[in-house]
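About this split. The held-out portion is used to measure sequence recovery: a designer receives only the structure tokens and must propose an amino acid at every position. Recovery is the fraction of positions where the proposal matches the reference. Here is one held-out target exactly as it appears in the evaluation file.
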């Protein structure tokens, strides 16, 4: 047991070295749009570049690196809309672990029995305890400038910075953090149900485009000239920031 705990703590201290990096590129044809669906990433960074392809850089850590090979990308590039989806093969059959957190410290246990024994022997309590597959995934996506893009994320935070092109983001349990050049935004909207909308933009997010009722807020504005951007979250927050 001591060997396992020492290993776990050491791995967490140097966890960035143990992650698996997965690179994916998808060619883009004239006039194509892209729809991306993500379930488990903690963080999804989205931007644009000058190349005529979609680049996806993924950092994967599943169960302390033991099940990283279960992660895969599913791509359908046969029609006008490129569909890209993250997937974890055989998720229901992967080993379940106890993950405990105490501040910045994180420890993994292979079973509930190991966790109970460790807790009894050390007399410790933890801020958070969870049971299941330990999944840590971060993604950085770049799409061609001007490409119409839609992103649907179940759990992760979607971070947008300097995106050039029509963009729609829906983050159900996570949130959206978007840094925008207001002069290059033709239309902007943000929508939340149980979260909040925060903004330091110069444009007023009120007036005719403002709706508010129980567990729902919608704002919109036309700050400049350019594509349309729409951000929504059901349970998280939407942050609208000035682009540095």
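Reference sequence for scoring:
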């Amino acid at each position: 047991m001591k060997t396992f705990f020492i290993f776990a703590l050491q791995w967490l201290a140097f966890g960035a070295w143990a992650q698996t990096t997965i690179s994916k590129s998808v060619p883009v044809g004239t006039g194509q749009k892209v729809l991306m669906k993500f379930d488990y990433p903690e963080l999804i960074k989205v931007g644009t570049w000058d190349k005529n392809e979609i680049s996806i850089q993924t950092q994967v850590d599943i169960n302390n690196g033991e099940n990283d090979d279960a992660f895969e990308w599913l791509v359908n590039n046969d029609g006008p809309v490129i569909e890209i989806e993250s997937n974890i093969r055989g998720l229901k059959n992967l080993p379940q672990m106890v993950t405990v957190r105490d501040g910045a410290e994180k420890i993994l246990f292979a079973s509930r029995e190991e966790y109970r024994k460790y807790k009894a022997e050390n007399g410790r309590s933890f801020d958070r305890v969870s049971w299941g597959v330990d999944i840590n995934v971060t993604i950085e996506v770049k799409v061609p400038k001007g490409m119409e893009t839609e992103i649907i994320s179940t759990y992760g935070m979607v971070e947008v910075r300097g995106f050039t092109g029509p963009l729609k983001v829906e983050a159900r349990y996570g949130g959206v953090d978007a840094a925008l050049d207001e002069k290059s935004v033709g239309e902007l909207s943000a929508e939340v149900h149980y979260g909040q909308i925060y903004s330091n933009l110069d444009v007023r997010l009120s007036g005719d485009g403002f709706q508010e009722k129980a567990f729902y807020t919608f704002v919109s504005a036309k700050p400049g000239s350019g594509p349309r951007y729409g951000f929504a979250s059901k349970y998280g927050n939407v942050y609208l920031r000035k682009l540095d």
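Annotator remark: The two ends are 49 Å apart (CA to CA).
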